[in-house]
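ingest -> validate -> predict -> emit
validate: passed (alphabet ok, no gaps, 101 aa)
predict: started
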Amino acid sequence: MPKMSMQIPHSLSQEEAKSRITGMLGDLKEQYGDKITDLSEEWSGDTGTFSLKAMGFNLSGTLRVTGQEIQVNGDLPWAAKPFQGTIEASIRERTERLLAP
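emit:
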């Protein structure tokens, strides 16, 4: 399975960054409800795990909030490999907007 790994810097406190990131997947579900199903997001401390099905692809991974960045790691199905750049760019853009001061 192709791996996705991103670090997105922020200048917020760790607590503020986490509060903004928590529920991000739920917001995606609201915006793209017809394309996202089987959404699961669970947090333990500053690390969240997620899984979802988007446009028929199963995606899963972790979100980790630190004092300087958000770390996003996930697994993509091989069929989604051609779209990996688009998926990563979308995640990065949405996360950067959420973390804007």
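The radius of gyration is 13 Å.
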